[in-house]
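One such shown below:

_____
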Amino acid sequence: MTDRSKAIVFRSENEVGTDEFALPALPPQHLSVRALYTMVSPGTELRVLAGNYGAADNYPLIPGCCAVGEIETVGEAVEGFRVGDRISYCPDPSPEISPQGIHAHWGGHASRHIVPVATHPILLPQDANPLDYSITEICAISWRGIYAAQPKTGEIAAVVGQGAIGAFSTICLVALGCKVIAIDIEEYRLERSLRYGAAAAVNSRDSDALQRILAQTDGGADIVVESSGVNPGVELAHKLLRKTPLAFRQSISDSLSRWPRLVYQANYLGDFPINPHGYFDAEGALVLTPTDRGREDRMAVAELIRQGHIDASVFIERIAKPSEAPECFATLRDHPDQLCSVVFDWSQE
């Protein structure tokens, strides 16, 4: 095992490079992991690159929150994990276990990590191709919100925004038997959504977008997922909720199970005003605001991948060397019509 780690570094606002750093000693309840692949979460990481989420005061930093790797050393107090195990994990940003001399904004895009078992890494199937599971961490974020909405086979779902979180929300809903309408402003993303099972794709820039979406529903969607992260997406999401009749003559609690569900899957840089009586043409909707993902979400996604319900190859558009990071992030930022997803290959580092 080496005590050095190579990493992709955001040096300043919109400046991407690579560097090498020293790793600290391995604490007892931690794993030393050699990264095999790390996946970019474009929405979050591009905002970090632009100075948001506390990044402006913490450059240089290592971005990234999604990794698959192989255990090199097991801390003396760790049980259940072995050297050679392959795991999916979210690198920990704690300063005491981050590469020395650098801020870790999750710290994912690096060749080696010190991973606390308390962050709940999951074991991959023994014969798994680790590349297939490089999507696990991001997809698990989407799965958490989708599962919370308790989708039923045959229900209609609309997913606003087809970036990474929206794309994975779409495939999770398809896997659970829903008819999914994918919505975005980029035709490139909409075409991809159709390839992995969306029943329809609508460009929200079209003058008749709202009517086009509603024409494919029974008065609105049973589940609406807002994953665009911008105010126009929020406004559209509310308008797509299925209308439910007012229940003046019965207990409001009797109608709860029939309300549509609205899932906020994105992060938002600013506030937006909502008048619920203007948005909901009914007595209510169930609003879910999941955050992050848990061990159970990671395990559920990994099992869907293992069983073939989620095909990772559909989502991995480019496999890049870490040295290609400046170009990759520039393309993701400036040409979303050309590239949606990047996985960095650390297996030779």
